[in-house]
Task: structure prediction
Amino acid sequence: MCDSAMFPAGPAWPKVRVLQVLWALLAVLLASRMLWALKDFQECTWHVVLNEFHRVGEDGVEDRFFEQEPMDTVGKVFQTLVDSPIDPKEKYLGFPYYLKISYFCNEKLSQDLVRMGHLTGLKPLVLVTFQSPVNFYRWKIEQLQIQMEAAPFRSEEECVAEEVCSMSWYTPMPIKNGSVIMQVDISSNRLGTFIQDKCFQMNINGFLKRDEESRIVYTVGEELYDLLPEHFVGISSRPLWYTVNQAPVLILGGIPNEKYVLITDTSFKDHSFLELSIDSCWVGSVYCPHSDFTATIYDAIATESTLFIRQNQLVYYFTGTYTTLHESSRGSGSWVRVLASECIKKLCPVHFPANGSEYVMALTLGKNEGFLHLGTITDGQVSFEMLPKQWSVCQQIEVTEETEIVYVVPEFVPEARGLEFLMILGTETYTKTPMVPKGISSNPYNNLIFIWGNFLLQSSNKEDFIYLADFPKEQTIKYVARSFLGNMVIVTETEEIWYLVEGTYQVYQLFPSRGWDVHISLQLMQQSSLYASNETMVTLFYEGNKLYQLVYLMYKYESRLVKRPVPVEKLLMYQQYTNHYDLERKGNYSMLSFTNFCPFSVMRLRNLPRPQRYTRQERYRARPPSILERSGFHTKNSLAIYQGLVYYLLWLHSRYDKPYADPVHDPTWRWWQNNKQDKDYFFFLASNWRSAGGVYIDMDSYEKIYNLEPEFELPERIFLDKGTEYSFTIFLSAQGHSFRAETELGSAFQLQTQVDVGVVLANPGCIEALVKQEVLSNRNSVLFLITLKDKKLCYDQGISGHHLMKTSMMVNVVGSSGLCFQETHLESHMQGNLMVPVLIGCPPGKRLAFDITYTLEYSRQQNKHYFDCVHVDPEMPCFLFRDVFYPFFLIQDLVTGESGSFQGSYMLLVVGGGPTLESIRDYSSDEIYRFNSPQDKTNSLIWTTKTVRTTNDSAFHIMSHQSPGIEWLCLENSPCYDNIPRGIFSPEFFFKVLVSNRGVDTSTYCNYQLTFLLHIHGLPLSPKRALFIFMVSTSVIVGLVIFYIIFCLLLPFMVQGCTMLRWKINDLIASDSYYSYTSISGISSMSSLRHSRPGSIVSSRIEEDGAERREATEGQLMTL
Result:
């Protein structure tokens, strides 16, 4: 048997083990209590797998989440919906995956149970929460959720039953640009079987690809399938490092003498075992003093899209393929080596992103010892910078005159003298044990800093440190794991596990401990598959506020790696019971009783406000279309329609962030605006089973929710704008009789309670907390009304969701740390300590919009008319140049649905423009000043106003909703001056307008910035161009008049000439016809002419005389 230090996740298990009598009795009591709970509540759990779009209905299929592009697979189905509320002209796409949902009870999957749940009305409800991206410069920061109802679907396997043999439920698995982590919450509609809610993550794995044979393989290395005991047994645990709440894929090294790592995209619910494809070269030198070479991956850090590893002194990174983040394929083809000329001794994580980027730190040895290399990761691009730039820490640490020393760690461990903690003031006594610092850890929310080694120091201001004496100086801390929500665990070099509530002074040992022994006994009684008599802890980490253990279990014939929760509350509770109990003699038997040290018996939160205003969670609801089929089961076509509707709903959300405000403040308004009046008609068709495609799309099933109710717990985080307040009430029922009456001079007696609440603020100069106590003596209870308020001091102005200040509020019931628990049939919860992260600044989901509806209405009233452009654009109405322009703006809250007129001050600047949409350009800063400043002397102003108020330097006007309006000028040197008209209509111009309240509005932390296009028509021409056009026009008109007069005078002569010409032409035509006829007929009558020649001559002469007389007559007529 190995030593217990080598198997830290559990104690050593000899063949014969005798527990203490009281421990065994306690285990039996607790086990019977749990079995009683299981009798009333059957342990049923949701079972969810991912299926590709084309594999719906197949059994035993589970796919990997790496496809990220929407699929054009639902368009043909939507073309059949000819008589439905959707617009067939719109483009409907689908997502690559579905969520397949079923459930099992007592760890067994039974189709009988699933069918029973379906027949009793059970419907799974799926809530998908999209994690905000790191780079807020590229993507909008928002807290977005979509709630879906799963659709029942029959399996495609052969079935002899009439209706169904096996079935499951399906929902689309939505994907959103900018998000690679999706939190999925599964709950029921509270009908049928009781099933515990389940929460897990669906993360996109950008380190997977398809090979030539369409197999899914890793890009970072080769996947192995044999986990051997030598990879874990006898190996100490190591920390799991990643960017908190941003890393979709986690990586863990530390396997000795191998290039092996564990990698997971499900937070180790499952995992892959890889051999990395790195070169493993050895670059030892004089300046890099490594004693030997090993293939071990010592440090591994995961960020949003990039993995970092250190092997010996070498650092590598690999960027995954995330098109949802980078809008292009920026994935690495292989591991990239960085800092090739440096000797790196340690990679350290930076747990939180900042300024739109993530960071890692590389500590150096050798020639550059004392420097660190700060790695910056932005959109998958990695760069390193050596800091400090001028000197190393080792060089400067001796020059104290030029260096600010924050704190000097004492040389020896202080003597606590039985105290739980000790303030380090320099006057205390010390032991002979040297202090050996090993690391430092900070929490940006509560500002708590821990310096640790063979000691534990805590500080909230970087100046005053407290020594926590409960941690023994004989142990040395190896690493810590923090939830950043108020909890922290410590792992020592001997694999001991200690627990601490941040802000308190008690440190509790979790393993090894009596509480752990009791917990193990109970688990073995229940034959839990998560525990074994021989096991090794691989790592310890927090997921949210829950502590988990990655453990290698060794059984007799097999071994496996499992992730299991660490029941901190149960361990502390068991430890309290085993350490504090009484045996009271009652006649002939003894009564076992336990001491409850919790100062209260009941703790509840009341009067919580509606959460969305403070959590900034935007939530949509999407139900599947109703299927017109007798069994009620959906088909592949109806599921495809569900996919398209969910996709279109999220597409409307992304498109709603536009400058011109809609008449109705809701993203779904445009979807149904033309079909709402036909709602009853579509319902009539569905009621008579005549809907096209066999489905009925209810327009009310796709909506945005603005009125979520509180859930009797503090929110995950709170956003505070300038002067915002957040209030709630804590109800505490005291243990026993905790009230006493006290009298004061000049006042009636007052009830005093021993149950007290303390509120700790991380930044008391920025926020304040007011606590009001109310004693309810008849109920042996007390109410504490707590109000958290921003003090309007610590933040300037910022873009919505950008550069928020992190702080927190901690609420502690005095004397409750580690002693108070709430037990349910599912699990135990610790009570008495609450922590809420607070983010100060401009909350996400607020925006400034151009109120085009009221602007048009008010302009029409003031100008007594309104003239739109000749070619009307309903999305961008025109304004006439000579009319006064009265702009109005709205402050729209995308979370609560509120929309109201912007009452603050703002600056309006024309920052770009052009005569057409294609020719719009941005102006330079100098041009912006000349075109907008009332101080301009270059005759370049585009507009002016009668508003007198200006900025401090008088550079620009400061306007408000009460301003008298804008008059357009377009002076000689402005870009809209002398605009050439296109066609016969007056010139037009598109102005790019920027509206901002930064520096001029003190009512909010929000720096509202709105850029929109303004279409102005009817621009005047320059005098020169107008004169030129006038002269040309006048010349043309005069010429036309003169031509007309001349034409009228010469018209009779022209008519006479034309008539004479016509007669002459006709005469020539007649003469030519006569002579032609004579010549032809003369040949045929020669003989007759000889016999009758005298008569013919006479006849010819007679005809000639007649012709001459006709010509004379015509000449006289012409003369007349």
Summary: Residues 1023-1084 form the longest helix (62 residues). The chain is about 20% helix and 30% strand. The two ends are 147 Å apart (CA to CA).
